[in-house]
Give the backbone structure.
Amino acid sequence: MIYDLIMAAFADVEESDHQEHFLVERLHQSNTFIPELSLVAETDNQKIVGYILLTEVEIVSKNIIVSSLGVAPLSVLPEFQKLGIGGRLLKEAHKKAVLLGYDTAVLLGHKDYYPRFGYRRAIDFGIEFPFDVPSDCCMIIELRPNAADNISGVVRYPDIFFE
Ligand SMILES: CC(C)(COP(=O)(O)OP(=O)(O)OC[C@H]1O[C@@H](n2cnc3c(N)ncnc32)[C@H](O)[C@@H]1OP(=O)(O)O)[C@@H](O)C(=O)NCCC(=O)NCCS
């Protein structure tokens, strides 16, 4: 399932197998689910046009396991894209994550999209993802200054992502 999200991240949403909502449903029922970090964007007449979910992941090194957040999925209805909704969802989720005490968030995504919101290549911090994908698309944001300075290792997604 994570690979479906990766495909959605690298190409048009049509590349999706349209199963992502099942992942979201499973994540909602899992212990990685954080209600405050499940956000929808609505129009004035309550139409849901965007969604973001951040769930807990770990960054695992030899000596230490550090909690982080995985952004997946982030999606905006095609006819509402390029209006700033994706960016607002991200920024709002980041604010809430900080209030909850999280220092970093990671994602697989468009290398030309996420850097404008502060994401940087994870590999530059010594952080790797467990997928065979270009390192430019594996990103991390420091939600507090220098939060990733002393973190390195491999991102571990919960098993539920792979079901
Ligand atoms: C990626 C996505 C969430 C962006 O949402 P959005 O509301 O359209 O984004 P914003 O309005 O905040 O930002 C729009 C800007 O991002 C750019 N952008 C959007 N998708 C992009 C992509 N795949 N690659 C590079 N830039 C992209 C737009 O060109 C636009 O740039 P501009 O401001 O210079 O004109 C949305 O396009 C989407 O749902 N895509 C399909 C699902 C998906 O790929 N999700 C991400 C999985 S990691």
Confidence is low (pLDDT under 50) at residues 6-15. The longest strand covers residues 48-60.
